[in-house]
Amino acid sequence: MRRIYLYIISIVLFLSLGFYWTIEKNLKPQLNEVFIQLPSNNLNIPLNIAVIGDTHTEEDEKSYQKFKTVLNKVELIKPDLLLLVGDYTSNPSSVSNFKEHRMKLINIISSYKASPYALVLGNYESWSNPEEWIKQFNLKNVPILENQTKILDINKTKVCIRGLGDYYTNRFKYIDFPKECNNYAKITITHDPAGAFTPNSEGLFISGHTHCGQVSLPFIGPLWAPTEAPKEAYCGLFKKGNKTIFTTSGIGTSIYPIRIGTQSQWDLLKIIF
Predict the structure, then answer these.
(1) Under CATH, which number does the domain 2-272 receive?
(2) What does 193-229 look like in DSSP terms, one character per residue?
């Protein structure tokens, strides 16, 4: 009988360690490479685009360093473009000195120099005085896009980046690309992928917000995500009609610091326009 007990305890211990190791591994950011072939518009422009989302950076040096490390890895691969899709801060209610915390995050982002970049706000920024975020980003010359378009020169060609406000916090406002973008590559970034499913939305959308559900089970997929987007758009690449949506799993977590069946990651999108 004692041998049976020891056997059962050994199995439970083994499974517990395996489960713990899996969760720990899932929380360490990994590079995810994705190839995207868009419908031909005769541009034939290849772009390598790095995507970072949902860092949910806490108010401590370890968390700040995690964000810096990911940016350093992006700089090493020298993408043509970096896009950041929101939720840079953790829950504002958990931060004791939010003004200082916000400036640390903005300084981390503004230190990036390897390529052109642009970003949008997420719901956590929208819940913590979004106008102040925009003001401070602008003071640091950080290209924050809130329902507006920026035209960038990349690899001797023009790329139009449209940043739309966060749908989840009612800051989304659909705007058309300027007419001058008709002959350029066009990319839309917005935090919540639900924005890609509003009337008139088309083309390439890059989003975050969902954490790929944070918990995803075999044969079932993500259990839930706080979005009105269809489940097929919770994670990774999804094409429907004239839309191509990429939703990053993101770096961090919210509510509970766990990931089951989903990987903390940043992305390198290899796109042909």
Answers:
(1) 3.60.21.10
(2) GGGGGSTT--EEEEE-SSGGGSBEETTTEE---SSSS
